[in-house]
Amino acid sequence: MKKLIVLICGILLFLYPEVTFAYTGDGTSGNPYTGLVSSSVEWIGTAIYAEDLVIVSGATLTISPDDDQATFLNMVGSTLTIESGGTFIINPNASASISVIENYGVMRLESVPNEPGVASLIHDTYFGTGTTQVRLYLSGGTTTSGDYRWHYISMPFSGVTATSFSTLNLAQYIESLATSTDNFPGWVAYDGYQYSSRTFLSNVFSILEPGKGYNYYSSSASIFTMTGTLTINDEIEYCPMSGVSEFQGYNLIGNPFASTINWQTLVNTGQVRSVDNAIYFTNNGSIQTYVGGVGIGASEFIPPMQGFFVKAYAANGRVIFDNAARVHNPDLLRYKKKSTGENLSESDTISLVRLRITVQEDSSELVVRFNKKATVSFDKELDAYTFSRTMGDINMWTTTGGIDYCINGLPFPETSIEVPVGVNLKIPGTFKLSANEIKNLEIYNITLKDLNTNQVADLKKGEYLSFTAEAGMVEDRFILTVTKSATDINDLHYSGKKFSVYTTSGRTVNIKLLSDEPYSTTGLITVYDVSGRNVFQNKSIEWTGKGDMKQIAMPAVRPGVYLVVIETRDWKVVEKVTFQ
């Protein structure tokens, strides 16, 4: 019926052009917009609902954010028709989901300098002879130390020519050219110029293809307008591994869609094959990372036109960009822009220490995370390599087993663990080294030591290290120490809801399950004394439901304060008890 109404309105508009016919509705879910857009209008709102729409010749429909609030146009199950001479625009920080687009006019995903977010479009079917434009803003210039601000980019459609970018500094990365000691030889410009050797190779390209990533630099900022048919089908990118060196196996790929994609969805559904789970990309000239719920300057959401590195660990690595992973996340800043410093780790169940080094307006971060499944070797689900020690004005990493990490997943220490911290400084100054986030490590003491000055900072108390240094690489100076200890009782967070934990005569610990929430069938109970020593552990406690009581007899323990740690698949609970 609604399509018939739109058709009738279109016929009447053709027969009586002097009469204005407008769409109806108020844009709510119960009364969506529908009909003809016969003049230039701008829709702003957190959620806008519309059904079948026709943008007539001479009219423009623009979807824009409301100040800092993103706008979403919901046309799921409906058709948007853009007639010849009509225009449809999605501005940065706005998004639209449209089932069918019939375009005979102009559809544009806009970009502006210093944009607050991305323009994002998800659609299932497209046809028509109209023009689809995607605009891309890229900043230019150099960092404080003079490094070029390179951008990893990708295209949402095929056919974009290399010469569309007004610079010779448009490059691809060729994994097979990396050596056993360096990956710099992998960078080759579109005309075959190899940056490391300063010679020309036969590796040239003239067209940018969706799913691949590219590297771009210019001395000044630009907005590029590209034209094509947006990718809506799955895209497969093959990621070879030509050798076993730590410098080999890296492949530069990119988001092939006009919307954000959820990288974690691809990982969880098996679309990332023989490839580590970590992704790496540029941010203000430095490398930023995400893996397994923890990000440094990023999350699992990869915006449109974002290129990023992955590392294959086998010759047949590949990433399948499944269109089911498309999502809208218009508030996400482009990775190509300076980090906001926001912590982007996802889950409250993740245990981690996030260190930050700062000088003036610049900063760099690393993460040491703890997980029961982690090992001291590289874990593809939890770890991210230090992609480069030298990109960015300041850089920081930890080293375990001879491997440098920006995100280092380790097993929970039984007693204590020391992790060396290295930094690379391209600018001199007075630096602050601190922890800007500590999560779910209540029964651990966490310190940072400067071996040059013997200064020790208690990170859980907000202390930090301050030091003055010239430009250069600083290794074997800072040590992060995580020690299991129960001495800092006041800093612990007790549940008080999920379990009732108390002692009775005979030095018995009573643990009663209070919560109705589901538990795994087995769990772990550990009791520590104030020194952090494990005095009791049972790894196969079975919980049957609310009211279930467990009793632990500990007649040999000395009087004092003890910590009872209850762990299930879902969470970890810490409770304090006292034996008289």
Describe this structure in words.
By secondary structure, this protein is mainly beta. The protein has 4 domains: 2-129, no CATH class; 140-222 and 231-327, no CATH class; 351-371 and 390-484; 491-579, Immunoglobulin-like (Sandwich), CATH 2.60.40.1930. The protein has 2 helices and 48 strands. The strands form 12 sheets. Strands 31, 32, 33, 34, 35, 36, 37, 38, 39, 40 and 41 form an 11-stranded mixed sheet that branches. The termini are far apart.
Our count of domains comes out at 4
What is the strand tally? 48
Number of H/I helices: 2
Shape: globular
Radius of gyration computed on alpha carbons: 28 Å
| Percentage of β-strand residues | over 45%
Helix content: under 10%
- Major sheet, described briefly? 11 strands, mixed
Pick out the low-confidence regions. Answer: 1-6, 336-347, 487-496
- Given helix and strand content, the structural type is mainly beta
CA(first)-CA(last) distance: 79 Å
**Average residue-wise pLDDT:** 88
Task: Briefly characterize the structure.
The protein is built from two helices and 48 strands. The protein is mainly beta and 580 residues long.
Q: How do the strands and helices of this protein lay out in sequence?
A:
Layout (H helix, E strand, L loop, with lengths): L1 H14 L17 E5 L3 E4 L2 E9 L4 E5 L6 E12 L4 E4 L3 E10 L2 E4 L10 E8 L3 E8 L12 E3 L6 E2 L8 E4 L13 E3 L3 E2 L4 E2 L6 E2 L5 E3 L5 E6 L7 E5 L10 E5 L5 E3 H6 L3 E2 L5 E5 L2 E6 L2 E3 L4 E2 L4 E5 L5 E5 L4 E2 L23 E9 L2 E9 L13 E2 L8 E7 L2 E8 L5 E10 L3 E11 L4 E7 L4 E4 L6 E5 L2 E13 L14 E6 L3 E6 L8 E7 L5 E9 L6 E5 L6 E8 L4 E8 L1
Parallel strand pairs: 1-3, 2-4, 3-5, 4-6, 5-7, 6-8, 7-9, 8-10, 32-35
Antiparallel strand pairs: 10-19, 11-18, 12-17, 13-14, 13-18, 15-16, 20-29, 21-28, 22-27, 22-30, 23-29, 24-25, 25-26, 31-32, 31-37, 33-35, 34-35, 34-36, 36-41, 37-40, 38-39, 38-41, 42-43, 43-46, 44-45, 44-47, 47-48
